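Supplementary Text 2. Reproducibility record for the structural model of the 597-residue chain.

All settings were left at their defaults, and a single model was retained for analysis rather than an ensemble. We include the record here because the model underlies the residue-level annotations in Supplementary Table 4.
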Amino acid sequence: MKRTSTDYKLLSGLFFRLLPYQVLLIVINAVNGIVDSLYASNAIGNTAMSAIGLYGPLNHFLYAASIMLVSGSQMLYGRYLAKDRERIHSVFTVDILIALGLSLLTSAILIVGVITGTTRLLVSQEPDLQMLNRYILGQAIGIPALVLGQQFFAFLSLENQTKRTMVASIACFIVNAVMDHLFVVIFPMGTFGLGLSSAIASWVFLAIQAAYYLAGRSEWKFSLRACRWKDAPQIASLGYPGALSRFVEMFRCLIVNFLVLKVVGSVGLSAFAASNSLLAVIWAVPFGMVAVSRMLFSISIGEEDRRSLVDVMRITLTQGMLLMCGIVVLLVLLAEPLTQLFYRNPADPVYSMTVMGSRILPLCMPPAMISLHFACYAQTAEKKALSIVLPIIDGAVGVVLFSLLLIPVLKMNGLYISNVLNGVLCAAVILINAWIELKRCPRNLEDLMAIPKRFGVAEDARIDISVRSMDAVMEVSRQVIEFCDRRGIDRRRAYLAGLCMEEMAGNVVSHGFLKDKKKHSVDIRVVHSGDTVILRIRDNCVAFNPSARAKVIHTDDAIKNVGIRLVYSIASDVSYQYLLGLNVLTIRLSGPAPDPE
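Retained model, structure tokens:
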């Protein structure tokens, strides 16, 4: 498998083009958390920081629920995209309805919990309880907007509306910062003001994204008529492994908070909250990578594209890992300046605890990247055992077990080191899983992924061709015909397959390559499956739907778009998608090929 293939470069370019937008969503949420923490520590006091830390488990629950819906709907999207595109309207509608119902119910439960005093289960002493209750009330107002906004963000990314998601994210940050100053400094509303600021920002975030759908410009529509409720259990079934880590993190936070309060005290919780606020921004990078990988994994699995599946994992664990390691080194070097954003007195115990957290906690990120991506792959590939065991260990078991052993001895450093050891434990679980599935030691990345042999087509049943110039186009037909001959495909269909690919590749190079000054490439794949020859051409040029040009066949102009018309006349099926910034055209020649018109 050549790493320098056009397909690999297309995927790599697509991965890093999508990554900033996915990172931005998480960064904005994280930066909002930092802004809240800065106002909490500097304008209200350390007790307000404890309230933010105590709200952490609830935040994990909301994020887990949102991730479950996003990942489940994206996986169904990938499956329906090539086979039943109309079903995507149902997936979108069901996803939005479930998100709305779940978020409204969560807000109601939290408000009732504050009124009835149930929040004493999280903390019982004053003034921590009062601070937490007021913070929850402010946050509860924005929970529906928060959860719905994340669903819209995912679907807008799939529709290549990344500029709109960027505008929404930036507006969310600006509104939150302005509201924090207004409700905490000018009108001293305490932790309720902090929560209310986030709530208002979430509604702005949602409104900007929802405007695109309300204007009727989206490809995927909200339609109760198209809604098929049997998609709901599928979304949950496919999505829950991806959210499992976040769900169990909620319980991990509760246990760890209890241990820290008991052994170290509230000062330890304040230090941990400050360290986590800083790292939340950086966690946006690996979590953003996971979001992009999930989309690409889902599409690769929907197309049964074995090579692309491995390439996506390779991109994250090489180029992505290199980026992550550089960020970690920078964080460790800047530990003290970052700590001084929250605490200024080096003699204060919370200062030294936060510094150590900023130095040790980043070390858990590289091994966590491996765990996160293998969990994501296991989820999309429906490897049930690994998709359940790995998130549970990563989300709670590893950290809790190591914390129980180390916090009583090393205090806060014990908690920080536990997070690092947890990543090492998860990497070992991945290796052991592959060993069990293969019944031997894995020798390469494909072995480590333990992709089933039955997945995709055999190496000799497909051919991949890279095209970067018109000279290469002239060779396409010959290579496709030779492949068809080796596979025993009748000469007529072999000739037509070569002709189709040469015509379409030539059209992309002649027109698409000249639309801008960017570097472009074309990836051609020919697959022999059963009695069907499947031809796929993928390029990173501007959007171009050949079906629109093919309609000229019904006009009196017999000269225009002859090549495209020829392809449509001889193919048994042609489908086009502009997917994540790539043109993807799939042509099927089934059985005896029809006479070209």
